Amino acid sequence: MLALAAIPLGVNVRCLDPSPDAPAGAVSELTVGPLDDDLALRATATGAEVVTFEWEGVSAAATRGLELDGWIVRPCPAALAASQDRVDEKSALTALGIPVTPFVAVDDHAGLLVALDQLGTPAVLKTRRGGYDGKGQHVIHADADADAAWKDLANSGPLVLEAFVPFDRELSIIAVRGVDGDVRTWPLTENVHRDGILRISRAPAPDMTSDLQERAASYTHAVLEHFEYVGVLTLELFQVGNTLLVNEMAPRVHNSGHWTIEGAVTSQFENHMRAVAGWPLGETSARGEVAMVNCIGALPNPSSVMGLPGVHFHRYGKAPRPGRKVGHVTVTAPDAHTLAGRLAALQAVLPPDRG
After folding, report:
1. CA dist., res. 79 & res. 89, Å (int)
2. What percentage of the chain carries pLDDT values higher than 70?
3. Which of 214, 219, 250, 201 is nearest to 89 (CA)?
4. What whole-number distance in Å separates Cα of residue 55 and Cα of residue 63?
5. What is the DSSP string of 126-160?
6. Per the omega criterion (within 30 degrees of 0), is the bond before 300 cis?
């Protein structure tokens, strides 16, 4: 989707991916190789004016190496590194005065018991590094569950215990910062997850207040300025009453922002390309009411979806398998009532999620 956004801007893209069947190969030159392989990275970056990434699993050390050897890397490797360790990430956010979910680093079984004593139960034991879509974590409902959680994750590297937050809803705030320091923010997005996988996003988030929007925007602004960040940044949030807690930071374009392709004046993908290229940023307001529905493990029949009003269908070219995001459908509408009707019509023709 980044490469697709680059094409009308006249930007040539070369991508690195471990799979020869990567969807990016359909719209860009593709280098096949491990993401942390130095030779593959340099072959991909050769001749490029700027290097960027769209996944926080990319090696921060490798991107830092490219930067030290003269390549311009945007966003900066420092932000990427901070996002890759949950303790480092939450410590950095806390230092900026941004509220986060309470957490304690866990290095051993005894440390887990101490952390549980501090945070109480329920709590969530997570790997400090890696893990996505609900992977790499274990909910501890009571102290008696500690041994099972430790056994499940003890061999996964350093861990962190986070307090279980009884949130009202999950939100995300996506912003972009240009080379000149200009910052633009998209409307707060409401996200619905099941089994750790994003299912539906709504934007602007229903019942959103200007106070919530401004507070979330201030958090992104603080992070962007701290890292002198260039590109798109996402903060995943828990709303608890009138409080916003940051759960995670993603230094990239984000699944909860896919709605921006048809639903915003400028998509997150186009604005990321504008930012890293050093160009002026585009307007980020929503075009009415928007929802994005992920296709998990299976795709609908195009004929049953594409005839619906306000619907935009995206197929990723990925082989279907349980739990895999293989496409998404965006639904646009002039108002919330119309959006609800269009979403109901879409849900009636979507196959059951496989994952």
Report:
1. 9
2. 99
3. 250
4. 12
5. EESS---TT-SEEEE-SGGGHHHHHHHHGGGSSEE
6. no
